[in-house]
Amino acid sequence: MRKKVYCGGEYREFELLPREKVEEIVADLDLEQVVRCAMEGYVRGFKSGIATLDLVSGKLTSDSLGTNESQHPWEAVYVVLFKIGQNESLDDFQVNGDILNEEEYAEYKEMLKNDEISCYEEYAEKKGIDLKERFIENQVYYTEGKEFLAKVKDQLNKWYRN
Question: Where are the domains of the chain?
Fold first, then answer.
């Protein structure tokens, strides 16, 4: 399907993959892979990380956008699959259960009580816990049951209308 995209007084035409092919690609994607892709563009406090599917090539891509930033229309021939907002962080999750398991949390509380550490980040550093991985795990866990693909279908409806 050919699609014209307008910007700056002129049109550029793109050959989009067939919608069925795009839906097949999206259905085959692993949610963790998509979250990791969004994480590549994420800069805590500065830039949102966005996982997109390029509608021309069918490739999963990562983008990084700050407040009031957007892609040039000719570069944004994609659907957004997942977004990690620039102000999201591990602090949005509960220390007990989400960030640390029960055993880790009990040890963390004990070390905190004994003034050996001052925060969970310090505990994680001492114990070799990768907080970035825990962040990704929580994003996947809290997204899995949701209908995030409905948003993708809405975007596809906009791209593939006649």
Answer: 2-87+146-159, 91-129
